[in-house]
Amino acid sequence: METILTVNHLTKKFGYLTAVNDLSFTIEKGNVYGILGPNGSGKSTTLGIILNVVNRTSGEFSWFDGSTTTHDALKKVGAIIERPNFYPYMNAIQNLRLVCKIKDVPETKIQEKLELVGLWDRRNSKFKTYSLGMKQRMAIASALLNDPEILILDEPTNGLDPQGIHQIREIIKTIANQGTTILLASHLLDEVEKVCSHVIILRKGENLYSGPVDSMLASHGFFELRSTDLDQLRTLLEKSASFGKIENFNGTLTAYLKEEMDAESLNKMLFEKGITLSHLVKRKESLEEQFLTLTKNQ
Amino acid sequence: MLRLLQIEFIKLWNNRASKVLIISYFVLLTSIALIAAIKFDIGPVEFHLADQGIFNFPYIWHFNTFVTALFKLFLAIVIVSMMSNEYSNKTIKQNLIDGLSKKEFITSKVLTVISFALISTLFVFVVSMILGLAYSDYNEMSIIFSDLEFLPAFFIKLVGFFSFCLFLGILVKRSAFALGFLILWTIFEQVVFGLLGWKVMSWEAAKAVKRFFPLESMSNLIKEPFTRLSAVQNIGQQIGEDMKFDYHVYWYEFFIVIIWTAIFIYLSYALLKKRDL
Fold it and tell me: ABC transporter domain location, by residue (chain A) (predicted)?
């Protein structure tokens, strides 16, 4: 695997406040990463540091195996931080031309990228006349101008209406499908769950977890079961070694697995014991549940 | 280098306010030629300013560089706002994320400042040359090209002043406040001079110290040219006042301004480097 970014023991202090505390992680090529964390957990600060706009207090980071300087590396990165910042008095074309000059790339990609985000029709309108959703899409177009190795997005759907959120997510999915590495910071868990393969979870500037979404918790998932004879079902399950905690919620039993078991074999086993189920679902904990478990434990 | 200048050009030229100010500035520089048209005809008194010797070589170099330097305030507004707008639009952050280093960012601003000063100097040179050739009483080559040190003095003066504006733009981050600060600083230098002369040392010594103040050192590069006019000299002699004074540009005056310029540019860079955006 090709490493795109390595972060080692990164720390940032604002006076007495520690925004990022001894943070380490690596970003590999081709994955879609989510940085998760509540507001103020150091997501934006971390991105600010690796993008060279915030000075680090201690620690290190290196782009692309450390063979290039951060300054040169950033030309191969596309990034949007917090709000889209462009010159309000210039139109889309003028703004993107400027970005091309800064990134030192030819201006040939402007049309392609504006079409990708659906702004080509509005290319001659001044940036200040755009709606927030359009501004955000324009920022994505700008970040893609150099066909970056990695796209960094900081809360890209913040403040958008449902339609805008949907548009942005579709764009992100399209880009991810093209094989671009993506680093997405968000506090919206379903957003991360929908698009990311890997997560980095921060709380108060500390790394709680980093790795694939699937193996975040060492859990085998749980069953949601309903039957006419709930009590009998419950006693049966409690006797079985495969199950741990069992909860009854509004007539639905939730049984947490201690070992791997598929729905088919459970159904077979219960039927043989004379219990027929009216409802059987096997689920994994949602990212939200996992996230809350993780952050609570600390 | 060309790339950095182009970046700054895109930013400035697409901003209507900057464009208007820049154009007005250069129109004003040219309009110094209009002084030639000043004519009074009051009965027997016929006064034609162009005939009073203000366009004589080499005096014209002194006169024009002094007068046109007054217009530098127009560009000062442009420069302060081109810096502070980057902060208020937060585009400085986006520029850096897009791959401009902090050093390149400052360099692009400094290059712009130098270009402004250079173009102004060329303008003044051409306008003065044309005016001089049209009105000067002396047209010998050796006279035309004497006293040319006023042109580099003009250039250095502008670069120094604009660097100060650049620094204020970065320091204050708001164009209106930065311009206010500029005015405040002008007053501050005079107040310090007054206090020094009044309480601390002799007026002679205070004057010597004053020459090291940033704005004072810049205005000191090109001294006022009016007392050099023969008409004014004549009046002076009649009322018994000796108005001979030293109007030359000295190397150490250049030196002081260049040092200040370096300090302002370095401070701008240091400030930008230290700040979290």
Answer: 5-229
pLDDT in tens, B47-81: 666 677 778 888 888 888 888 888 888 899 999 99
C-alpha distances in Å from residue B74, one per residue of A71, B24, B49, B146, B188 = 34, 8, 26, 30, 22
Report domain extents, chain B.
Answer: 2-174+258-274
Q: Given this model, what pLDDT does residue A297 score?
A: 61
- For chain B, say whether A19 makes contact (Cβ under 8 Å): no
Question: Can you say whether residue A159 is alpha, beta or left, with left for phi > 0 and alpha for psi between -120 and 50 degrees?
Answer: left
- Give this prediction's pTM: 0.84
Residue B145, amino acid: F
Question: Testing the interface with B: which of A11, A101, A152 to mutate, by most B Cβ within 10 A?
Answer: A101
In B, which residues are within 8 Å of A102 by CB distance?
A: 7, 95, 98-100
**Are the CB atoms for A151 and A79 separated by under 8 Å?**
yes
Residue A103 contacts B where some CB pair is shorter than 8 Å: yes
Which chain A residue lies closest to B8 (C-alpha atoms)?
A98
Query: What is the ipTM, given to two decimal places?
Result: 0.83
Any B CB within 8 A of A79 CB:
yes
| Domains of chain A by residue range | 3-212, 222-297
Query: What is the number of other CB atoms lying within 10 angstroms of the CB of residue A192?
Result: 24
Domain topology for A222-297: Alpha-Beta Plaits (3.30.70)
Are A71 and B91 within 8 A, CB to CB? no
Q: Which residue of B has its CA nearest to A91?
A: B14
- CATH dotted code for A3-212: 3.40.50.300
Contact B189, B213 (CB under 8 A): yes
